[in-house]
Write a structure and sequence with these properties.
mainly alpha; single chain; two-stranded antiparallel ribbon; 75% helix
Length: 317
């Protein structure tokens, strides 16, 4: 009997092993089948990323060490393009213009969107105002440029008309070397205000009302709640908005191209605009590629600094 029982148990174990092996093979076949379908569905996007992003990134890196006009053979020049960049007075000017644009538009945009988000978080018709402020984000930049060019018009524009109420003669906004860049910055901040506002609104939803109730019981005023509760607890959201805003500001092109064409006297020209001119007007692809990588290292450095600073002032709850 014991031998028969042993044989029966051995047979049961073997059958169990066979069933387990069959299930494993079935799962492997299913995985291979799902993997094939996943690859097939991802293929169009991967091909687009490969053709329009990855290959151009590496190609432009090698072109930054060469001279090429897209017609004649490529001529390798080493680091000549990078050396010539810092001898180019126009590039130095657009370099500082880029710093000026980013340094002014990012803090102003973050401050305005934060205060707007805090205001909208406590009022009725929140969805209506949220949609209204987000509308410029999805609007065509061409339409926005036309509207703001009308607003900045020195003869019949809205800004100068309002200034005339106070006896102030408004400037020649887009044709002034002093006022053209502030005008472009204001337009850019207005267009992107709704996007940052929505991010801050999402962050505000994650702050518990218990903090504010406890502060109210302690007699805190509204500005104390804002400074000591809202601002610290929004630091992860602020960090995200700051990083994304700096990256976007360094890559600004359409606003400047449509409103000022980089003028007057290069006062609004930035690196991307100057890069576009060398690449697609003068067909100096090597020089333009070198500019692109200078811009990349600028953005990389700013982002690294922001991540480093985040460790010191970030508050997570």
């Amino acid at each position: 009997m014991s031998m028969e029982r042993s044989l029966t148990e051995a047979g049961g174990r073997e059958a169990s092993f066979r069933a387990g092996d069959a299930r494993a093979k079935s799962l492997r076949r299913l995985f291979r089948k799902d993997g094939a379908w996943a690859a097939l569905l991802l293929l169009p996007n991967l091909l687009g990323f490969l053709a329009f992003t990855l290959i151009p990134v590496f190609a432009s890196f090698f072109l930054s060490f060469a001279s090429w006009d897209m017609l004649t053979p490529i001529e390798w020049t080493g680091i000549t393009n990078y050396i010539e960049l810092w001898k180019d007075e126009t590039f130095i000017k657009v370099f500082w213009n880029t710093i000026y644009f980013a340094g002014a538009s990012v803090p102003l945009g973050i401050a305005c969107s934060l205060f707007l988000a805090v205001a909208l978080d406590r009022i009725e018709l929140k969805k209506f105002y949220r949609a209204a402020y987000f509308l410029p984000v999805v609007s065509s930049m061409v339409a926005i440029a036309v509207v703001w060019q009308f607003i900045y018009n020195p003869e019949y524009g809205l800004f100068n008309y309002v200034l005339s109420w106070f006896g102030i003669r408004g400037p020649q906004w887009l044709t002034s070397t002093v006022w053209a860049m502030p005008a472009v910055i204001l337009t850019s901040v207005w267009k992107n205000l709704g996007f940052n506002m929505l991010i801050f609104l999402a962050g505000l939803q994650g702050i518990s009302d218990d903090y504010y109730e406890a502060a109210s019981l302690d007699g805190a005023r509204w500005y104390q709640k804002f400074l000591y509760i809202t601002v610290p607890l929004l630091s992860p959201t602020t960090f995200f908005v700051t990083v994304m805003s700096f990256i976007a500001s360094f890559q600004v092109f359409d606003t400047i191209f449509l409103m000022t064409q980089g003028g007057p006297a290069r006062s609004t020209s930035v690196i991307v605009h100057y890069l576009y001119e060398h690449g697609f007007k003068y067909f100096n692809m090597g020089y333009a590629s070198a500019m692109a990588y200078v811009l990349f290292f600028m953005m990389f450095l700013i982002t690294v600094i922001q991540f480093w600073r985040q460790r010191k002032w970030g508050v997570y709850y």
